[in-house]
Predict the 3D structure of the following.
Amino acid sequence: MVEKDPKDVGAIELSSSASQAVVADIEPGKLTQDDTIYDPVFGEVGEDGPNYRAVGWIGTVGLMMKTQIGLGVLSIPAALDAVGIVPGVILLCAVAGIATWTSYVVGVFKQNHPEVYGMDDAGGLMFGRVGREVLGLAFSLYWIFVAGSGILGLSIGLNAVSSHGTCTAVFVVVAALAGFVLASIRTLGRISWIAWVGLSCIATSVLVVTIAVGVQNGPSTAPPGWSSDYKIVKKPTFAEGVSVVSTLIFACSATPAYFSLVAEMRDPRYFTRALVVSQLGSTLLYVAVGVVVYYYCGTLVASPALGSAGALIKKIAYGLSLPGLMASTTILPSKYFFVRLLRGSSHLTSNSFTHWATWLSCTLGCTLIAYVIASGIPVFNDLVSLIGALLGAFLAYPPTGCMWFYDSWSLRKTTDRPWSWRLLACWNVFIIVLGTFIMVAGTYGAIVGIIKSLREGGGSRPWTCADNSNS
């Protein structure tokens, strides 16, 4: 790793014909011919092209929470079923706490190095060409897999609402097309409202299920005389245990996306505020929904969790959640490929044919790969576990530990609090080691689960027409 002193960078440069200003003082959509923003990532941004620096901190909260809650909350009750309530809640809080730290490191690193747009740029800064390509590939695969799980979740919702109105493979295609259309919106400032709508719909739907299982004292599909068989503590196998940790990491691992969120904020100094609000909100929702649904449903809990309260509530919950599931299909790495292809070119911030052709090609390509993943690994909980282990832990843990060392190594002999530096150094070494272990062990556990689910068959076979909403 190359040493580099951290830079104190607050806001991007803004040049105009009259004076210098701070980008936060310009309202989105209010650029004039005399106002040209120069951004270290996007270059010169004027009125003739999209304004990429248009997201306020409240909009950032919505984007953060939607990125996590959209799919992560749907797998929490099933995760508690594998390990028990107490270990599950402890693990969830621990993973959420680590995610808060790693995300904070990303925000600080981005502000110290404003030229960084994504994990690939951070990897290139720390490890050169190899680091750039490895982290860039992992980042792309991660968000394509996330979009694939969103497509799968939306197909499950369409099946539930329509009572399996047509072949599941058709619903997967419809979900992919919807994701492509919404993902083609170019700037986060214009898509943040979709995040808020999606977040509200997902939160409402899971609360409906949570209340329903409490009122019904369990799922309506339970046999006569059944009582909840929840466990305070369970003894999972090693594969089951690491799969649960991987699932929880997926639920809290929006960290790799935060570089691009900071890059499109009007004032990146508010990133930490947005992070704390979003992390507290999502963690509290996770704990409440996970504990209540599992407490009443026990081993009859469904994954995704919206099917846990019986046929009628399942239809209502999935109907409410459709906009949120649709929003989850838009989480694609299209912008990463787009910026990398056109960075340094005037086409990046113009409305030229090259701009639009490149943008739509990137979006379509990512959507097609996500569609193949959704069709090829059609088991929601297993897919979530695989994403969390193989890519979520790898991207969220070791790189952020390295980022801290990259910016702080030069301070080890100059700080007036050497003990605190050593404690943070040990903590970040732990983050690196933990991420590496979860990546290897969690991937093993997820693959074991996928093989088991595919053997059981039913609605969980690749490219099947069978109903996939009954799991």
Observations:
- The first helix runs from residue 57 to 72.
